[in-house]
């Protein structure tokens, strides 16, 4: 098992996300996909279609994480500026990729449309492609992976990408739920966490059928330890006078 912790940052690019017009689902899909590869999302940002913002975010995050994944801004219109911004972040010139250009020419017959679409064949020098069976490939520049913003297209690119990425130990989770407020078990919960620093214990309150409850989620790489900690939490909840239920 590779015990090194691999991390990724996600940059969601799009004015439509920030305005509330479009609800992002890509972060969820990326997080679930990378978790299966033993890669943890360390940061996620939503930023506008502004070149300076994209450049700053990419340059900051690519030196802090093993992988950076961006979504959005790959189309042919004036506001699709992700690729030029990535090129600027790396200090690379834009060049026409022959594979992309050939794909575009094979799919577009109208000269006027072709002229616009060929803009999408301009990529940072040295870019590799992320093939998929839905549309034009995504792009890879260094440790930055540039994916589409449209969810079903992004997922097609992600399916190819996840086979390329190297990860470490996979994080597993176990959970237990009880109808009790967080404050009633906060002290005891802290004590369990202190005894087991190698796992992460999260507390998530909810209201169900008018009753206040809390779900405790334990995350870690060692399944036997997770089972041990969950058992301790169950004992803790029973001692607090509530009946725990595993989920």
Could you please describe the fold and organization of this structure?
This protein is of the alpha/beta class and 247 residues long. It has two domains: 6-161, Molybdenum Cofactor Biosythetic Enzyme, Chain A, CATH 3.40.980; 172-246, Alpha-Beta Plaits, CATH 3.30.70. It contains nine helices and twelve strands. The protein has helices at residues 15-18, 26-36, 51-61, 82-90, 98-107, 111-117, 151-161, 182-195, 223-239, and strands spanning 6-13, 39-47, 67-71, 94-96, 122-124, 128-130, 138-141, 144-147, 172-178, 200-208, 211-220, 245-246. It has a six-stranded mixed β-sheet, with helices on both faces. Helix 2 (26-36) packs parallel to helix 7 (151-161), helix 3 crosses helix 4 and helix 8 (182-195) runs antiparallel to helix 9.
CATH C-level label of the largest domain: Alpha Beta
Number of strands: 12
The profile of the biggest β sheet is: 6 strands, mixed
* Helix/strand class: alpha/beta
**Spans of at least 5 consecutive residues with low confidence:** none
* End-to-end separation: 27 Å
User: Please, how many domains?
Assistant: 2
The proportion of residues in beta strands is 25-35%
CATH homologous superfamily assignment of the largest domain: MoaB/Mog-like domain
Oligomer: single chain
> What sort of overall outline do the alpha carbons produce when their principal axes are compared?
elongated
The DSSP helix count reads 9
Averaged pLDDT, please?
Answer: 94
- For the largest sheet, list the strands in their spatial order: 2-1-3-8-7-6
Instruction: Estimate percent helicity.
Output: 25-40%
The arrangement of helices and strands along the chain is EHHEHEHEHHEEEEHEHEEHE
Here the CATH topology of the largest domain equals Molybdenum Cofactor Biosythetic Enzyme, Chain A
- The CATH architecture name of the largest domain reads 3-Layer(aba) Sandwich
| C-alpha Rg (nearest Å) | 22 Å
């Amino acid at each position: 098992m590779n015990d090194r912790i691999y991390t990724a940052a996600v940059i969601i690019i799009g004015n439509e996300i920030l305005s509330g017009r479009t609800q992002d689902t890509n972060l969820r899909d990326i997080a679930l996909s990378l978790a299966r590869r033993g890669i943890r999302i360390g940061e996620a940002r939503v930023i506008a279609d502004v070149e300076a913002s994209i450049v700053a975010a990419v340059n900051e995050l690519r030196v802090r994480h093993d992988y950076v994944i961006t979504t959005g801004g790959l189309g042919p219109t004036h506001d699709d500026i992700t690729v030029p911004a990535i090129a600027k972040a790396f200090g690379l010139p834009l060049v026409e990729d022959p594979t992309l250009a050939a794909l575009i020419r094979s799919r577009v017959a109208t000269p006027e449309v072709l002229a616009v679409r060929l803009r999408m064949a301009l990529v940072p020098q040295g870019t590799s492609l992320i093939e998929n069976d839905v549309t034009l490939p995504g792009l890879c520049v260094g440790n930055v992976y540039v994916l589409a913003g449209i969810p079903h297209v992004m997922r097609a690119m992600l399916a190819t990408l996840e086979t390329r990425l190297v990860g470490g130990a996979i994080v597993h989770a176990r959970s237990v739920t009880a109808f009790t407020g967080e404050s009633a078990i906060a002290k005891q919960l802290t004590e369990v966490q202190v005894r087991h620093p190698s796992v992460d214990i999260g507390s998530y309150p909810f209201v169900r059928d008018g009753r206040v409850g809390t779900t405790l989620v334990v995350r870690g790489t060692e399944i036997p330890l997770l089972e041990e900690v969950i058992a301790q939490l169950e004992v803790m909840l029973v001692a607090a006078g509530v009946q725990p239920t595993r989920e």
